[in-house]
Amino acid sequence: MTNDSPRYSPTELAAQLKTGLLSFPVTHFHADLSFNEAGYREHLSWLSQYDVAGLFAAGGTGEGFSLTPAEIDTVVRTAVSEVDGRVPVIAPATGGTASAVAGAQAAEAAGADGVLLFPPYLTEAGQRGLIEHVSTVCRSTGLGVTVYSRANAILDDVTVAELADRNPNFVCLKDGVGNVEQMTRTYARVGERLTYVGGLPTAETFALPLLQLGYSTYSSAIFNFVPEFALGFYADVIAQDRDSVYRKLREFVIPYLDIRDRTKGYAVSIVKAGVNVIGRGAGPVRPPLQDLREEELAQLAELLGKVK
Question: Smallest Cα–Cα separation from 117: which of 166, 155, 83?
Answer without folding.
Answer: 155
